[in-house]
Amino acid sequence: MDSVGREWYSRPVDRLPSISAFFPAYNEEKNVGDMVERLSAVLPRLADDYEIIVVNDGSADRTGAVGDELAAADPHVRVVHHQVNRGYGGALKSGFEASRKAYVFFTDGDGQFDVAEIKDLLPFVPEYDVVVGYRLTRAEGGLRSLNATCWNWLVRRLFRIPVRDVDCAFKLFKREVFERVRPEAEGAMISTELLARTARAGFTIHEVGVHHHLRQHGAPTGANPLVIARAFYELFKLYRKITTERG
Fold first, then answer.
1. If pLDDT is split at 50, 70 and 90, which confidence band does 140 have?
2. Going by DSSP bridges, is the β-strand pair 19-25/103-107 parallel, antiparallel, or unpaired?
3. Residue 41 in contact with residue 52, Cβ under 8 Å?
4. 121 or 155: whose pLDDT is higher?
5. How far apart are CA 16 and CA 61, in angstroms?
6. pLDDT tens for residues 28-74?
């Protein structure tokens, strides 16, 4: 990095040089348009250059078609299509690979986070490599909230991840993180693996509280027993792998 680049990274910012913002979408035809509209309103105020990427994860509805229509109407929008459903991890990995800008942000495609709150992450960008959200209050509450509390306690103990809400889908990365961190999980374990490998590689992480809202359209998949079972299988598989790796 040249001296100008070093100076830029060292001072507080309220704008980024460029940002890729993406979200995975599986059967989210009623949410895709709203998500792209919200990001299109927010990103020009936060970055000099931006792109929005929709990762259509093998949807059976019109998610892919709606995404293509949005991309045809706006050159800032691109769509990555999976012919079959690869799962949350597979969708995130496609988003990371497709992102081209200096910073990479991702959230979920269900509209439960207010993307305008990206601005609250920016003040911490010069000091930290990764800035992640944590849900101030989980919208669903009840059993899902209890499950999340137990899960976060477990992964923090196993991997020493310095965050309280590992799976909060509101994360901003310097793109150089992905030059060294390449997650492998295809399922729900992707967030744990991503942060575990990021911390292990020596990158710095900071948390910022964000608001969480109820889904307006579609059905969640995170509470599916098969998704949960797969997450626990991948959790202990990852633990064995990481603890036997060097450095």
1. low
2. parallel
3. no
4. 121
5. 35
6. 999 999 999 999 999 999 999 999 999 999 999 999 999 999 999 99
Q: Which CATH class is domain 3-244?
A: alpha beta
Q: 95: Cβ–Cβ under 8 A, 6 or more apart, which residues?
A: 22, 23, 24, 53, 55, 80, 104, 106
DSSP at 149: H
Find, among 147, 223, 158, 144, the residue nearest to 193 by Cα: 158
How many Å apart are CA 22 and CA 175, to the nearest integer?
13
Cα–Cα distance measured from residue 224 to residue 125, given in angstroms and rounded to the nearest whole number: 35
Contact assessment for residue 56 and residue 82, using Cβ atoms and an 8 Å cutoff: yes
Backbone conformation region of residue 89, classed left if phi is above 0, alpha if psi is from -120 to 50, else beta: alpha
Distance CA 19, CA 1 (A): 18
| Token reading at 101 | 């800008």
Find the DSSP H helices in the chain: 3-10, 29-46, 63-73, 88-98, 142-159, 177-180, 190-200, 225-244
SS3 204: coil
DSSP per-residue codes, 58-82: S-SSSHHHHHHHHHHH-TTEEEEEE
153-176: pLDDT as tens digits: 888 888 888 899 999 999 999 999
